[in-house]
Amino acid sequence: MTPPIYVCPRCGRRYSLQEYREDRFCRRCGTYLTLERGGTPINEAGDEESSQGVWLPEGYEVRRSQLEFIKEASEALEEGEIFMGSAPCGTGKSLASLLAVLPRLDDGKLLICFRTRSQLHIYLKELRALKRGVMAVSFISKRDMCPMKKASSTYFDFLEECRRLRRNCEFLREPYCRYFLKIQRRRREAERLALDCAKRILSPLETMRRMSRRGFCAYEAMKGVLDRVDVFLGTYHYAFDPRIRSSLLKSLGVDLSDVYLIVDEAHNLPAFSRELLSDQLTETTVEGAIKETEVFEHEDLPSVKDCLEILDEEVFKRAERILGKDDLRRLNPGDLSDLFLERYGVAGPEAAEVLHEYGEEVRETRDRLGYERIFSYNHRVGEFLLNFFEKRAEEYIHLVRKDLRGRVILEVRSLDGREITDPVLRQAKGSILMSGFLSPLNVYRDLMLYQRVGVRLREFESPFPPENRLILAAGDVSSRFERRTEEMLERWREYIEAVLRVNKGNVAVFFTSYDLMHTLLPHVRTERKVVVEQPKTRRRQVIDQLESSGNNVLFGVMGGKFSEGVDYPNNILTCVVAVGLPYATWNVYQRALISYYNRQFPGKGRLYAYLTPAILRLIQACGRVHRSPADKGCIVILDERITHPNIKKQLPRYFQREMKTVMSPRECAQQIKAFWEGFSGNSPVRYLE
Ligand code: SF4
């Protein structure tokens, strides 16, 4: 028999077991080597793949799913491919992605970007635990890290104010920023402290507290040492907003081609990039701009007033009269531009320039006169209109709408975010994109990249035991619009009540919309304590309530704050009921999005623009039950459409395998009862014991 050999995961150098144990660092490339506990070494033929050495501190344990992830991601980076992984909760993908990249950092830097702060804390924890002497800095937004806490109308205005406060430090002219001034006066002390924060891998708020206690601006001080750190962690803006990225790269002292990128919760990236390319203007800003003309004189004031009047009367006041709440209409930017031409003598883009220039003057005047805030409403209106008239390609749609509070909003919305994502992902030294649910992977690839080549897609299995979950689909109910009858509502009610009667532990019932929730809620009879998602309901409140007993029911919506991005720890939620498929509201924007994607990906418009986001919201909601291998519970989907082959095949593989169809509330209750009886005498639910 051929003796087993061990392989360095980075350079592929081969070792005998004896050598591997003795030489903790690879002789060729210096990578730290360790044995997977219980793993099988590969043989000479190289036909086993689970025993590769992994860059880990001694005694550090990795799961099998992590090893698979590391192997796939490392190979992709090695071959210059973009890696996209759909790795369900429990895979340990944060650590795995770090282990794929960290051994390569001698010739690059790592930028980890995320959407929510909870993800940031997971990475910080892993980086600290790895104890590899990595220096890491993490930022949230500059405004959130600023101890001066200035209120500004927009983030851009805040940045302008910060710039002015820093500039004034030079002449000690009021107002100035004392935190920035101290950095200038005690540069070496600030630098020492900043490097210490980077070594300790502190969170942005810990860094901010530490630095501001000593009188320093954390953001500026940390920025000053970025050229010496290995890892930077920040929101998507740091990687994908061109202005912010270029300033970050300058501070890091590298080009994008020297940076490895880890994008967490990557399912958010297509929508994020579209938002980044979009812009909107509210009537409050236009009202502010009109008031501004009463305060700040200028030779062009009559023209400014004319432009604002056209915008106010012909767009905002008119929409106020015509649109109902939450109503949306398409608007032709050419028509609006012609209106400016007809009424004021210059076309839309020139009118935008007039407002923008006046806004510049207002800001300069405010700055000169020492105003606390130096923003200008007219500057903002002008900037928006420039965007509105400029972005007229087929990737954009122009809209006027009323929100739920009845406010009129003028918008230019992007239909395609690839202009933002493609160059970053392609130019980076290596990119890993991952999420608990990034499926279908080929759809997400197409939504982020122009070309299909050079991308490795990998869906990982759920590492949680299948016997701990029951997935049911009701075959006799549907949220299809034409089937929304009184009888259907009645049937849904029966299903919900049946689940509430038999499930052990807390239940969450998530609806497709607040409307549907409030229609059904008054008719649901239950002994359980009812918690209803409201705009002001806080997550902590709900978790505390669910932790107090197993006899609660939470009512909320899919895509809402209780069905996504929230962890229900210690199995405090043992059942999710999804009432219907959460398709986006059918409106002019949805239609435009579908027809745009139909042009880009013939015949796939509905899948890309409509079905994929709905499945994502559904799976996110259902994913609240199983957060650790020990969690047990049921998932009930009350919409027969989920069993249709073309929809079912978009679900995670384990859903497709395990989902059972029930045809009545009674059968649904029997299945749930039998599921829990399977654990009798060994109840998983803490508070029921
Ligand atoms: S320099 Fe720092 S502390 Fe001063 S205003 Fe800007 S962010 Fe705030």
Shape, please? globular
Radius of gyration: 28 Å
Structural category: alpha/beta
Could you tell me which ligands this complex binds, including any ions or cofactors? iron/sulfur cluster
Q: Kindly give the count of domains.
A: 4
The main β sheet shows up as: 7 strands, parallel
Give the name of the CATH superfamily of the largest domain: P-loop containing nucleotide triphosphate hydrolases
Oligomer: single chain
In DSSP terms (H or I, runs of 4 or more residues), the helix count works out at 27
The strand order across the widest sheet is 5-6-4-7-12-3-13
Instruction: Quote the CATH topology of the largest domain.
Output: Rossmann fold
* Name of the top-level CATH class of the largest domain: Alpha Beta
| CATH architectural arrangement of the largest domain | 3-Layer(aba) Sandwich
If you average the pLDDT, what whole number results? 89
The span between the termini is 53 Å
User: What fraction of residues sit in β-strands?
Assistant: 5-15%
Segments where pLDDT lies below 50 for 5+ residues? 36-52, 683-689
Helix content: 40-55%
